[in-house]
Structures are given as structure tokens and as C-alpha cells.
Design a protein that fits this description.
Structural class: alpha+beta
Number of strands: 3
Shape: globular
Strand content: 5-15%
Number of helices: 3
Strand order of the largest sheet: 2-1-3
Distance between the termini: 20 Å
Radius of gyration: 12 Å
Order of helices and strands: EEHHEH
Length: 66
């Protein structure tokens, strides 16, 4: 995921356990090989608009403490 100019590598499995909306955003059809995915990769991260890096980091910290 990319917020402002910062790219984050996230544990998607952990995120999916905590949020139905994140499931919808991050879930990728398992039959599509990772090399063929167009979003959610290092070269094509999911871009999050309207959130600062500081707020995103705080949100991720909060999620990982659940």
C-alpha cells in the first residue's frame, strides 16, 4: 500500500481478520498468480488517498494490537 510518498509492506492475512471492508479491498482471487496481479504489488501498490502517513501508521499499529 502507498500513502503519500511512502510504500508499506503489510501482512494482508492479519488485516483480513479484523475488517470486512479491508477484505473487500485487499482480497485477490487466489487463482490469479501473484506475478499476474496488477494491484497490491511492489511495482503497483494500492494507493490510499486522503490519509497522512502518520495516521496510517497509527491505524496499522492499532490494528496489530487487536
Amino acid at each position: 500500500m502507498k500513502v503519500e510518498d511512502t510504500t508499506f509492506g503489510l501482512d494482508v492475512g492479519g488485516l483480513l481478520q479484523h475488517s470486512v471492508p479491508l477484505c473487500d479491498i485487499l482480497r485477490v482471487e487466489p487463482t490469479i498468480p501473484r506475478s499476474e496481479r496488477s494491484e497490491g504489488t511492489e511495482s503497483h501498490p494500492i494507493v490510499v488517498h486522503g490519509v497522512s502517513v502518520q495516521h496510517f501508521e497509527s491505524f496499522m499499529t492499532w490494528l496489530h494490537h487487536l
